[in-house]
Specification:
Elements lengths: L2 H7 L6 E2 L5 H12 L10 E6 L2 H11 L2 H6 L3 H5 L3 E7 L1 H7 L22 H19 L3 E5 L5 H7 L7 E2 L2 E7 L7
Antiparallel strand pairs: 1-6, 2-3, 3-5, 3-6, 4-6
Helix pairs in contact: 2-7, 3-8
């Protein structure tokens, strides 16, 4: 597919078919996200891929409101997504990268993460998400980027990640559900 076709075709999907995504398609999607540019070639963003029903259920328990999950009207279509991808950034990796000799002349050298005028780990995580959204459209998959409805540190800790990591949200991925006339 041509780039502009992909860019113009990309939409957020809010209703997923629960059938699994082929491993090759998921691998391509994750490879696209992993290829995103990073400030100073830090590579400080990891993609946490949740495929098993147990890990996805844990994620939803941590990241969303029980009332929303149980209501079913809005949640059922999103909860059906067979894959959740959480972009996880490591601000300390950026601080360490900019402390290296080749970055000593940068205005960021020697700054702690909270002093950075632009948190590039957030920018880089956003780049990764956008590339995955485009890769999903190219593969005729649906994708939805959404905010967490719980503190990100609570969600990440519950998933076993260090307290120093941050996230900007999560990406639900799967085959779009076939619409019915009532949709």
């Amino acid at each position: 597919m041509e780039f502009f076709d992909v860019a113009l075709r990309r939409r957020m999907t809010r209703r997923f078919d629960p059938s699994p995504i082929p491993d090759e398609a998921l691998a391509r999607l994750v490879a696209a996200g992993a290829s995103a540019p990073t400030a100073g070639k830090t590579s400080g963003v990891e993609l946490l891929v949740l495929k098993s029903p147990e890990r996805r259920a844990l994620f939803w328990d941590l990241a969303s409101d029980r009332t929303w999950r149980e209501d079913g009207q809005e949640s059922a279509g999103v909860l059906a997504a067979p894959v959740i991808i959480v972009p996880v950034a490591d601000p300390d990796a950026y601080v360490a990268r900019y402390a290296r000799p080749d970055k000593v002349s940068s205005a960021l050298a020697g700054l702690v993460a909270g002093e950075w005028p632009v948190p590039y780990w957030i920018v880089d995580a956003s780049f990764a998400v956008m590339l995955m959204l485009l890769a999903a459209a190219d593969a005729s998959l649906g994708a939805l980027f959404f905010q967490l409805h719980a503190p990100s540190q609570t969600v990440l800790a519950g998933l076993g990640l260090p307290a120093t990591r941050v996230t900007i949200g999560a990406l639900a991925v799967g085959h779009p559900a076939v619409s019915t006339p009532a949709d």
